[in-house]
């Protein structure tokens, strides 16, 4: 199946007493390959070492030609390998400077294992991003994700347009999409 370039434009999202409008071009990373890490029993943040799959590299190469990207002033990437590798292709194509930000990491589930991650995702969605007091699995709430994103982005208030290479669940806190494809481009204007 051939990947299609997708672009979604979102409206202004007002987040509290913030005062600087910033155009954010969200890029979700390409498809990762977890095989080697799973073979060696990596869990938790160890899974974040996974590189892109061959298909993910092709997605990132195609993404890097998106005509919207050169309008940005800087690329800000999650420090997770799959996001960094995706950002690499965009940096090569655009020549934009790259900053790596650990606070742009994937959504956190505080129990290991794929099953716990999927259960947590279901609970997160059912509870609209909240963590109920009796939750059997602990995870990062929507409010906590928004807060760490804003903390990170406050350093970049001097920029008008930035590319942010990050992850599905973090992006979903700022865009209405229920599903965000690998290497999907979503443009938003936020107050930071």
From TrEMBL:
InterPro entries: His_Pase_superF_clade-1, His_PPase_superfam, PGM_Phosphatase. GO terms for molecular function: phosphatase activity. One of its GO terms (cellular component) is cytoplasm. Signal peptide: none annotated. SUPFAM superfamilies: Phosphoglycerate mutase-like. Pfam families: His_Phos_1 (PF00300). Transmembrane segments: none annotated. This is Histidine phosphatase family protein. The lineage of its organism: Bacteria, Bacillati, Bacillota, Bacilli, Lactobacillales.
């Amino acid at each position: 199946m051939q990947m299609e370039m997708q672009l979604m434009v979102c409206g202004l999202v007002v987040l509290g007493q913030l005062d600087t409008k910033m155009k954010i071009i969200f890029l979700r990373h390409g498809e990762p390959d977890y095989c080697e890490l799973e073979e060696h029993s990596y869990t938790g943040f160890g899974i974040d070492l996974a590189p892109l799959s061959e298909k993910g590299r092709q997605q990132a190469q195609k993404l890097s030609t998106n005509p919207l990207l050169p309008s940005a002033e800087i690329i800000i990437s999650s420090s997770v390998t799959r996001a960094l590798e995706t950002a690499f292709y965009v940096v090569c194509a655009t020549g934009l400077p790259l900053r790596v930000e650990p606070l742009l990491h994937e959504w956190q589930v505080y129990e290991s294992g794929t099953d716990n991650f999927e259960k947590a995702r279901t609970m997160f969605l059912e509870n609209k991003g909240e963590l109920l007091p009796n939750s059997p699995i602990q995870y990062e709430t929507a409010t906590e994700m928004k807060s760490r994103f804003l903390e990170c982005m406050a350093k970049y208030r001097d920029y008008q347009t930035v590319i942010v290479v990050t992850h599905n669940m973090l992006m979903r806190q700022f865009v209405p999409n229920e599903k965000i494809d690998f290497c999907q481009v979503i443009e938003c204007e936020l107050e930071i």
